[in-house]
Amino acid sequence: MKKSLVALAVLAGFAGAAAAQSSVTLFGVIDVAARYTKANGVDTRHLSNDGSSSSRIGVRGVEDLGGGLKAGFWLEGALSADTGTADSTRFWGRRASVSLMGDFGEVRLGRGKTSTRLVVDDFDVYSTTGLGDVTRTYQTFGLGTSYDTNNRADNLVQYFLPSDLGGVYGSFDVAAGEGAAGKKMFGGRLGYKLGDLNVAGGYQSTDIVNDKFKQLSFGGSYDFKVVKVQGLWSQLKYASFKQNIYTIGAVVPVTAAGSVTAQYSKAETNNAADRVGVARGD
What we know:
Elements (H helix, E strand, L loop, with lengths): L1 H19 E9 L2 E8 L2 E8 L6 E11 L2 E12 L4 E2 L8 E8 L2 E9 L1 H9 L28 E9 L7 E8 L9 E10 L2 E12 L2 E13 L4 E11 L2 E13 L5 E11 L1 H5 L7
């Protein structure tokens, strides 16, 4: 009798868990591009990954907890579709997080995009992907991998504002360095989006050795229907080094699923950065 009762209790527990589960989704993108480039007198023809979108695979899920609360998870990793390989250093390197969501907004824990990088992604017409990626002009002033939070960050605690604030949106994050240089940071973004207008600004500060790497970004866009115009300004600072990047771009819809994009960026560095060989460029 006891064995039968235990079995029934276990089955009831699984049934309750199944009823509470809202959804689990397997998703991904595969993007491969054939490219021809000519630079400094060198012609290059190759098959490359991430032509207009980042190749990736992931799984995400949301569970309704009742009382207006939801729990979620998101695991996402990069793929190199031209070679069939995944990121060898971080399988879930694009995002690995759990969330609690409700009327208050969302609290997210784990690895993911920083708030300031989201500003850059939103106002670069190429969404920082492919040959037109505006961050190709961004400098880290010789820090290399010592600066590790310019796109995504580990050990993030993020808060996202609720979506019903009359067009106001934003997120704020802090990352515990846990003893690793270039990983302790704080930042945030605040924006306003209503109809065809979208404007936002973001700031981020990362501790590196005895100084801080700081990024300030402001962007805006307006959709005139026949063309969407976007602009972005970023300033990067570390020690006595400084760089300003000015970007303006346009997206012209051609079909329901296609468009023509164009973008121009100009990067300028101060004298201190010039003296150590940090390049200016258009």
